[in-house]
């Protein structure tokens, strides 16, 4: 029934437009977020999207098609388009058609029940599944080897029929943990969204929260609730050691119970923090990953994937072997440029919690940010080389534009006395910045000990400005950084842009500034437009200046 006072418009392309100024907007948002992805959050109208994954997420959490449709009917200004109604009914119904349970006759096998005879026949003939599913004596059932549990789930979701995994998670040996700090309300909600009542269908999933909003604390809360052997997987050694510092400072865990498993140390302790890189080490391209077995046999009760959107493809193999374990993914954005979000859903779990960045900004939990794009012309002498270059070469010429250094100088003067990060992709550009401004530099080749010292000096106010490569994109805790000047990036990566802004968002009294310096009338403009797309969708506006 139409109601012009309602806050929601449903379009035939499955986008939902929410009028944030409507008196019922918040109640509406709280209900539709269970089955629709927030894609854009500018000032007046927020856009959500209903997809296969969002409906599978909803179904796995107990929200079926009737709930989705009744919620949309409740809040929509106009009738639900018939194509959208049919899509929701069909897609949501696919969840639960395939159920994965224990095999009552063989502990080494699992039972895959297919409730629809036609789907059963389709699976029998699906090439990717033929090596993973095996005939069973039961009608419309397959046997699955226990160690293939994760691989089967990945393959099934690619067929459009995700498995309803009903095998209970395994309790590991207890490791008592007690937090010594209070959580904010949204952090408590994030932790409980995954653990719930600890019943069936809980204990796994992804939590999406902005950089600077306390994802680590949420992870610690989940560790406290489960109090079990825990493996924490991180993107790099710096973030791994930050986790160790946070565990040491915010819980009562004895340091002797915390281990680091990295390129430098190989400790397996009741709480072990490991880097993604060390799991992908192998002697040759065809050899086994040398550290995989050590990690997968750790008898873990909980696995935390920090920056889960960065999960390297080889680490999906570890995840596939850890399906019996409580598992949590933490991230600021589930955007993956490789399109493997469905694999994250299969192996780590559905998205359980998300909150708009601007909501936390308005509440003062993350810093207010101003985003500015500054466009500069290419120097005359580079116009011809640029014109005859390949697209990749064009991007490098545009990124390396020497005119950008003059902009950096102007911004350094404008923000004198503030804590500044100058970010560049190319090492040659970083060398030019070092030669001109003589600030400390951190790149991939900077030894970890030296990186730690420089980051700590920045935190301690001994250093006001750092020049950093992409190694500083992720999980670096520099709470006082208030200005970032980005000179180059990884083509059009939205994920990277979000992470770079995230370096500034720790709560602070004054607003922060994120500058992106771009060569105008070049391919860099195209890449820059895509890079800032995610931030615009989160409600951030870019002011564009031309020089």
Helix share of residues?
Answer: 25-40%
Could you state the oligomeric state of the chains shown?
single chain
Radius of gyration based on Cα positions: 25 Å
Structural class: alpha/beta
Main sheet specs: 7 strands, parallel
Q: Please report the distance between the alpha carbons of the first and last residues.
A: 54 Å
- Strands, count: 23
Could you tell me the mean pLDDT?
Answer: 88
Beta fraction: 15-25%
| Low-confidence residue ranges | none
How are the strands of the largest sheet arranged? 12-13-11-14-15-10-16
In short:
It contains 22 helices and 23 strands. The chain is of the alpha/beta class. The protein is globular, with a radius of gyration of 25 Å.
Walk me through what this model shows.
It is a single chain. The chain has 547 residues and is α/β, with parallel strands linked by helices. 36% of the residues lie in helices and 20% in strands. The protein has 22 helices and 23 strands. The strands form four sheets. It has a seven-stranded parallel beta sheet with strand order 12-13-11-14-15-10-16. Strand 21 (483-486), helix 20 (494-502) and strand 22 (512-519) form a beta-alpha-beta unit. It is globular, with a radius of gyration of 25 Å. The model has no long low-confidence stretch (mean pLDDT 88).
Q: What secondary-structure arrangement, pairings included, does this model have?
A:
Elements: E1 8-10, E2 15-19, H1 25-32, E3 37-40, E4 45-49, H2 52-60, H3 65-75, H4 82-94, E5 98-102, E6 109-114, H5 117-124, E7 134-135, E8 141-145, H6 149-159, E9 163-165, H7 185-195, E10 204-208, H8 215-226, E11 230-234, H9 237-250, E12 258-261, E13 271-275, H10 276-279, H11 292-296, E14 302-306, H12 313-320, E15 326-331, H13 341-347, E16 351-354, H14 357-362, E17 369-376, H15 383-387, H16 391-399, H17 403-414, E18 420-423, H18 427-437, E19 441-442, H19 448-459, E20 465-468, E21 483-486, H20 494-502, E22 512-519, H21 523-531, H22 533-537, E23 542-546
Parallel strand pairs: 5-9, 10-15, 10-16, 11-13, 11-14, 12-13, 14-15, 17-22, 17-23, 18-20, 18-21, 19-20, 21-22
Antiparallel strand pairs: 1-2, 2-4, 3-4, 5-6, 6-8, 7-8
Helix pairs in contact: 2-4, 3-4, 6-13, 7-8
């Amino acid at each position: 029934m139409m109601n012009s006072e309602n806050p929601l418009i449903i379009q035939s392309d499955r986008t939902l437009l929410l009028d944030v100024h409507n008196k019922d907007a918040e109640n509406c948002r709280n209900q539709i977020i269970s089955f629709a992805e927030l894609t854009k959050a500018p000032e007046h109208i927020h856009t959500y999207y209903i997809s296969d994954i969002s409906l599978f997420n909803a179904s796995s959490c107990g929200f079926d098609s009737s709930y989705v449709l009744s919620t949309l009917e409740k809040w929509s200004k106009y009738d639900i388009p018939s194509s959208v109604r049919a899509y929701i009914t069909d897609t949501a119904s696919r969840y639960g058609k395939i159920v994965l349970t224990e095999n009552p006759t063989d502990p080494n096998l699992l039972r895959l029940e297919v409730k629809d005879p036609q789907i059963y026949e389709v699976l029998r003939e699906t090439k990717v599944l033929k090596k993973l599913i095996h005939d069973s004596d039961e009608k419309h059932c397959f046997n699955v080897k226990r160690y293939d549990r994760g691989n089967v789930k990945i393959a099934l979701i690619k067929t459009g029929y995700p498995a309803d995994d009903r095998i209970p998670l395994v309790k590991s040996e207890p490791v008592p943990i007690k937090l010594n700090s209070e959580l904010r309300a949204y952090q408590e909600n994030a932790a409980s969204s995954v653990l719930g009542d600890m019943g069936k269908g809980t204990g796994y999933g992804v939590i999406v929260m902005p950089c600077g909003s306390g994802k680590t604390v949420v992870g610690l809360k989940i560790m406290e609730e489960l109090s079990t052997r825990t493996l924490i997987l991180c993107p790099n050694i710096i973030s791994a050691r930050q986790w160790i510092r946070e565990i040491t400072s915010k819980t009562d865990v004895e340091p002797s119970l915390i281990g680091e498993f990295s390129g430098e140390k190989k400790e397996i302790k009741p709480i072990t923090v490991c880097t993604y890189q060390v799991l992908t080490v192998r002697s040759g391209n065809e050899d086994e990953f040398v550290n995989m077995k050590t990690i997968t046999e750790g008898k873990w009760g909980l696995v935390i994937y920090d920056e889960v959107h960065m999960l390297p493809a080889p680490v999906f193999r570890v995840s596939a072997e850890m399906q019996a374990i409580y598992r949590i993914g933490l991230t600021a954005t589930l955007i993956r440029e490789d399109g493997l979000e469905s694999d994250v859903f299969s192996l780590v779990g559905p998205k359980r919690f998300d909150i708009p960045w601007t909501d936390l900004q308005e509440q003062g939990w993350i810093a207010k940010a101003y985003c500015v794009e500054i466009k500069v012309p290419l120097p005359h002498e580079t116009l011809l080389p640029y014109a005859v270059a390949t697209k990749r070469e064009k991007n490098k010429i545009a990124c390396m534009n020497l005119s950008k250094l003059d902009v950096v100088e102007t911004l350094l003067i404008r923000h004198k006395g503030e804590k500044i990060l100058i970010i560049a992709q190319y090492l040659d550009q970083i060398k030019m910045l070092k030669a001109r401004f003589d600030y400390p530099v951190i790149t991939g080749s900077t030894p970890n000990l030296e990186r730690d010292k420089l980051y700590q000096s920045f935190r301690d106010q001994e250093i006001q400005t750092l020049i950093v490569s992409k190694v500083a994109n992720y999980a670096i805790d520099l709470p006082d950084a208030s200005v970032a000047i980005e000179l180059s990036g990884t083509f059009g990566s939205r994920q990277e842009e979000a992470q770079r802004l995230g370096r500034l968002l720790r709560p602070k009294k004054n607003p922060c500034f994120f500058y992106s310096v771009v060569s105008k009338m070049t391919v860099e403009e195209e890449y820059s437009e895509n890079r800032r797309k995610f931030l615009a969708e989160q409600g951030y506006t870019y002011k564009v200046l031309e020089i």
